[in-house]
Amino acid sequence: MPILKVFREGLRDHGWIEGKNLIIDYRYFEGHPERIPALAAELVALKPDLLIGSNPQAAVALKSATTTIPIVFVAVFDPVELGLVQSLSRPGGNITGLATYAPGDWVAKRIELVPSAAKIAILVNPGNPMHKLVLANEVPSTASKLGVALPIVETTTAEELDSAFASATTQRADAMIVFGDTLTFVEAPRVIALAAKHHLPAVYLFRQFADGGLIAYGPDVADLFRRAAGYVDKILKGVKPSDLPVEQPTKFELVINMKTAKALGLTVPPSLLIRADEVIE
User: Fold this and answer.
1) Residue 119 has pLDDT above 70, yes or no
2) Domains and CATH numbers, the chain
């Protein structure tokens, strides 16, 4: 995976080389999130010097599995709201890391990217604890404030993606916002293909979706994993996680795929094109 490559490069920059002075044990839940708590317990049983959770589900499971082994999470939207840390500046306990959240109306910023849509379906994974919180805290107020309908379509497995998109079409959604999640990240080509099949302009969180997807707007995840290597270095050198504030994204990317816009018959406003970091022709 490209993300792992970036993480290993970051470790190498700090002098940690896998197989030389560092051993890394990996566990993958391979589309079965129900296995995450057991995998977390397996890793804790190895008594490592450090644990890494690369999504909200893994971070929550690791925190439940140990109160002593240091944990670094990467790409968790709002770790305070999720109960992983007490605050960003003072995480407390044995856990710290990198959030994907930056202050501002998260959903509203994505709605701006599809200005003519009156009904925007939101694709969520009900198994992702962060999605539940955003749906409860942000979606209803954003919908009433902006005067748009935000129907929710759900998918917990790759097999449910087809029915989720079909549901959005049945509900006559004008566009879709795809919430960031390990499932949609792994299944990106399928998600992009379904958006094209259902003729749905879709807004994604991660850069990789712009290769075929309409618009990607969100934090530079590769940068977060590169920075996570810095946390690993500090903790392995004796710094406590509670002394390392949680960091937020510093790099955001707006990527627009004009080829996809053309296929969907959309005109991208010049004001949006000016803001884009990259335009794929």
Assistant:
1) yes
2) 2-102+220-251 (3.40.50.2300), 106-218+253-280 (3.40.50.2300)
